[in-house]
């Protein structure tokens, strides 16, 4: 009996150490094959499409009697932008044109009577008719300029956003003055800056997903319209042109553009599963409650998944996706309840 107790006493430390062996609580997922997109990311700022911005010019001189918009304001087609009160000199020009037309009509009638009485020549009649035609054209021109109206409301010609305002309430402006700039909301573009070495892999037609930098909930799908053939001297990047026709994005937004270069089927894991140290990229797979380090190569990078490859990958074993930072090769693990 004493001998038996001595043997148990000698074995007890070993039994205790085996029971107390350290283990790490981890979360695992099966190794799956996914459609993995090879992507390239660039950043840029949305701006109105070239030709999508117009200057609102005033056709006649006057004074800004009402200003109803400010920079950045979104307006609908037909919305009042400002009110112009016609300058006194322009109004006088309209009245003079009206008087000239009335005089030309009376002169033509009088000349026609004189011709009927053989007191005027055909050339005098032709001159009177020409004078009337000139007077009618002059008055029509004044009407097109709007000089006959004391005030006029200038309205938005399309749905858009006010880019800038170049006048203030009460300003006196000359004819042809651009008082504000309006951009269409239906046509926007962004220049995504990418590294020059990456520009050779981007082609027109490739899909792009645009996401506001400060609001990842909103996205717009578009396509590459063109790739510039030179380095932007300001950013030292190559600009990729992306156009969008509509959506929840507004001019001036800073956006992230994810360009899909290619797509393939391969092994994919969550981004959290892949670790890196001096030996390169690696993951942990679990077999029999033990974590085994497996060297991998990251072949593609998408929004949430990394496409990987490696000679040591075992499709039958699960991959550690949480708790792997605490692991070492051969360490015991406990799996979370899924």
Characteristic terms for this protein:
OB fold (Dihydrolipoamide Acetyltransferase, E2P); 338 residues; conserved putative lor/sdh protein from methanococcus maripaludis s2 fold; alpha+beta; rod-shaped; Elongation Factor Tu (Ef-tu), domain 3
Query: What is the residue-averaged pLDDT?
Result: 86
SS field, number of helical segments: 3
What is the subunit arrangement here? single chain
Mass-distribution shape: rod-shaped
Annotated CATH architecture of the largest domain: Beta Barrel
Low-confidence stretches: 4-12, 14-19
Order of helices and strands: HEEEEEEHHEEEEEEEEEEEEEEEE
Total domain units: 4
Q: What is the CATH third-level topology name of the largest domain?
A: Elongation Factor Tu (Ef-tu), domain 3
Query: By helix and strand content, what is the structural category?
Result: alpha+beta
CATH superfamily of the largest domain: Efflux pump adaptor protein, beta barrel domain
Rg (C-alpha, Å): 39 Å
β-strand percent reads 35-45%
> How many β-strand runs?
22
Q: Which CATH class of the largest domain is shown?
A: Mainly Beta
Helical content stands at 10-25%
The largest sheet, given as strand count, sense and whether it forms a barrel, is: 6 strands, mixed
- End-to-end C-alpha gap: 49 Å
